[in-house]
Amino acid sequence: MNCSQVRHTLFPTPEKALVTTETPGAMGHLRDCQVCQAFFEQQRELSTSIRSKVGTEPAPEALRERMAHLVETHRAAVLHLPRNRRQVLVVAASIVLTLGLGGLWLASRMPSQALFHEMCADHAKYLDAQSQLPSSDPAAIESWFRDKAEFRVNVPTLERTDLLGSRLCFLKRHKAALIFYRKEGRAVSLFELSEVGVSLSALNRTVIDGSPIWHQSFNGYSLVAFANRGVITVLVSDLQEGELLPLALAARRG
Amino acid sequence: MKILRFQPSDDQHRAEVVYRVLLENLDALYSTAKRLTGRADLAEDLVQEAARKALEAIPALRDERNTRAWLFRILLNGIRDQARQKRLWIEVEADEKTPDLNVIAESVQGATAEDVRRALFSLTPETRSLAILIDIEGFTIAEAAAMLQIPSGTAASRLSRARRGLRELLQDYRSGSSRSGGKP
Questions:
Q1: Which of A23, B11, B59, B146 has the most CB atoms lying inside 10 A of its own CB?
Q2: Does residue B67 contact residue B76 with C-beta atoms inside 8 Å?
Q3: Separation of alpha carbons A80 and A82, rounded Å
Q4: H or E stretch including A67?
Q5: What is the pLDDT of residues A68-112, one digit of tens each?
Q6: Between these two residues, A52 and B95, which has the higher pLDDT value?
Q7: A36 lies in a domain?
Q8: Which ipTM was obtained for this model?
């Protein structure tokens, strides 16, 4: 950025100029350029000169008195503002509405939150991958689930992660496929269940590659979830959320 | 025993801030109104009307730190409405030309106070308002643009034009030209 650009960017002076994407560069130039520093000092002097020459004209005494009276009248009105019936009704209605909406929000979140807690509990319970079907073959596991789940179970192949097997489980009356993996000696449980009656809104939502992904930590376990074609997939592990996320993204890609 | 202390409500607190800033800036508001309208009686009326509107609008004030700018904005709305009714304030097309940065302070320093006041009043209202708000009242380009409801680039351009106009007028006065300076 040259001197001319800096002067346009920081016009009329750096403290009064617009803040734009150019500002940091211009300020960087200004720190090292004595010519520009002198230029802006001159601009400041111009403002000071205009201000000192023109001065500020005192308001007439009559106006000052009227203003003081206006302020006092207003202050008295504000201090004795009646709490009228309408105001009370509006406040009461707001409280009822807030409580009602809050209740609905809690009701919609709580069951799924309990479901996620139970997933963490199941992950901990089956840390040694007590599979009903021990297998490292995704196709065999998918086939095993075909007559057990109401949805099509997809067993993703995850990079540098060993597939150990699977089992069917029940989470708060939701039938779920549980698939066991191990990554660098750490257990990773992948749950798949029908989207019906499950809300992911209890988790934190982030959009990655144009689609939302949900994540949260519960009692030291990380949980990353996504929804696809009516099926919710949830990965649970004691890996950090950041370590689990690439696995979830790979699972989402299929 | 607990001592119960009177706690002012948010509205009361905000109102006290507005009262204080209003009374502290009464001279500046009056001066601005007078510089823009050229009439003392009209300036008084406009300031009083702006104060009345501001007190009514206290619940709408979102950030107390902007109270001064907010008061000027209300005043300028009133001035502009007034001037438009009398066709004195004509918005020119947005001038996004590069600001002239060759204006030097010397042109103003060497002039008398009376010359600067006359030169300022000779500017068109839309350029004069920028010189008043930014050079005299110390607002930023962005604040002045918001008060006048114009794009920031236009505000910068008009300020530049105001400064250029001042310099030219002051040079005319110094060289003894017979250029009419308008009302002081």
A1: B146
A2: no
A3: 6
A4: helix A61-79
A5: 999 999 888 877 655 555 566 666 777 777 776 666 655 555 557
A6: A52
A7: yes
A8: 0.78
Q: Are A160 and A183 in contact (CB under 8 A)?
A: yes
Nearest to A62 by CA among B44, B92, B172, B152: B44
The minimum CA-CA distance between A39 and chain B, rounded to whole Å, is 9
Residue-wise pLDDT tens digits, A123-177: 888 887 788 889 999 999 999 998 888 888 999 998 889 999 999 998 877 889 9
Mean pLDDT of all residues in B109-118? 84
What residue of B is the nearest CA neighbor of A79?
B12
pTM for the whole thing? 0.54
Report the residue from B19, B29, B108 with minimal CB separation from A53. B108
Asked which of A54, A69, A89 is the last residue of a domain, the reply is A54
Structural domains of chain A, count: 2
Taking a C-beta distance cutoff of 8 angstroms, is the pair B61, B14 a contact? Answer: yes
Is the pLDDT at A245 greater than 90? The verdict is no
Chain B residues closer than 8 Å to A26 by CB = none
Name beta bridge partners: A162: A182
Report the C-alpha gap between A174 and A220 in whole angstroms. 24
Is B17's Cβ below 8 Å from some Cβ in A? no
- Encode pLDDT of A34-63 as tens digits: 999 998 998 888 888 888 888 888 999 999
Question: A interface toward B at CB cutoff 8 Å?
Answer: 7-8, 11-12, 15-19, 39, 42-43, 45-51, 53-60, 62-64, 66-68, 70-71, 74-75, 78-79, 81
Residues spanned by the domain of A45: 3-54
Residue in chain B lying closest to A71 (CA): B19
In whole angstroms, how large is the CA radius of gyration of chain A?
Answer: 33
Asked if the structure places residue A65 within a domain, the reply is: no
pLDDT for B178 equals 44
Domains and CATH numbers, chain B: 10-85 (1.10.1740.10), 106-174 (1.10.10.10)
